[in-house]
């Protein structure tokens, strides 16, 4: 199948966020069902901090592809929930580092299995090679779009 034969409406529907919205909605409902008071966006920030605690707000913007005002709101809300704290950088006190609190660390054990379960359900019926191929293709699409934004 060549590009001109693609169902452009379907491609647009997938790329305009329906898939992401559906996953986020399922995650949100799953969190609520377990009385976990975070959003999928907040989980994404926490997920990164669980592997690299004490990063700058800019680094979180870069890895989540969020703009600075959106990230500021996310971190403000995570702070209000006592899941993270901001601390001044050692070398440059104008830069805040974002650190997990004990409460933030504890969420990893309950949320990661839940997210894994949702993703397994979403990928049901796909072979490992299909999942790998889709991941490769989506990474290329993202890279193409990201590179075009840098121009």
Number of domains: 2
What can be said about the biggest beta sheet? 3 strands, antiparallel
- How would you describe the shape? globular
Query: What is the CATH first-level class name of the largest domain?
Result: Mainly Alpha
Average pLDDT, rounded to a whole number, is 89
Strand content: 5-15%
CATH structural architecture of the largest domain: Orthogonal Bundle
Unreliable stretches, pLDDT < 50, 5 or more residues?
A: none
Helix content: 55-70%
Tally of strands: 3
Spatial strand arrangement across the major sheet: 1-3-2
Number of helices: 6
* CATH homologous superfamily designation of the largest domain: Winged helix-like DNA-binding domain superfamily/Winged helix DNA-binding domain
Describe the structure.
It contains six helices and three strands, in the order H-H-E-H-H-E-E-H-H. The protein is mainly alpha-helical and 151 residues long. The protein has two domains: 35 residues; 75 residues, Winged helix-like DNA-binding domain superfamily/Winged helix DNA-binding domain (Arc Repressor Mutant, subunit A). The protein has a three-stranded antiparallel sheet with strand order 1-3-2. Strand 2 and strand 3 form a beta hairpin. The two termini are 30 Å apart. The model has no long low-confidence stretch (mean pLDDT 89).
Brief write-up:
The chain is mainly alpha-helical and 151 residues long.
List the helices and strands and how they pair.
Layout: H1 8-33, H2 40-51, E1 55-56, H3 57-64, H4 68-80, E2 84-88, E3 96-100, H5 102-122, H6 128-150
Helix pairs in contact: 1-5, 2-5, 3-4
């Amino acid at each position: 199948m060549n590009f001109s034969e693609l169902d452009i409406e379907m491609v647009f529907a997938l790329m305009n966020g329906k898939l992401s919205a559906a996953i986020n909605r399922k995650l949100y409902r799953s969190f609520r069902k377990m009385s976990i008071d975070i959003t999928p966006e907040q989980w994404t920030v926490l997920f990164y901090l669980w592997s690299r605690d004490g990063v700058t707000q800019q680094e979180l913007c870069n890895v989540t592809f969020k703009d600075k005002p959106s990230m500021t709101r996310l971190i403000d809300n995570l702070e209000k929930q006592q899941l993270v704290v901001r601390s001044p950088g050692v070398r440059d006190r104008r830069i805040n580092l974002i650190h997990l609190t004990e409460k933030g660390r504890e969420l990893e054990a309950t949320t990661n299995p839940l997210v894994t379960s949702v993703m397994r359900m979403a990928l049901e019926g796909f072979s490992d090679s299909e999942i790998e191929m889709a991941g490769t293709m989506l990474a290329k699409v993202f890279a193409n779009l990201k590179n075009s934004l840098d121009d």
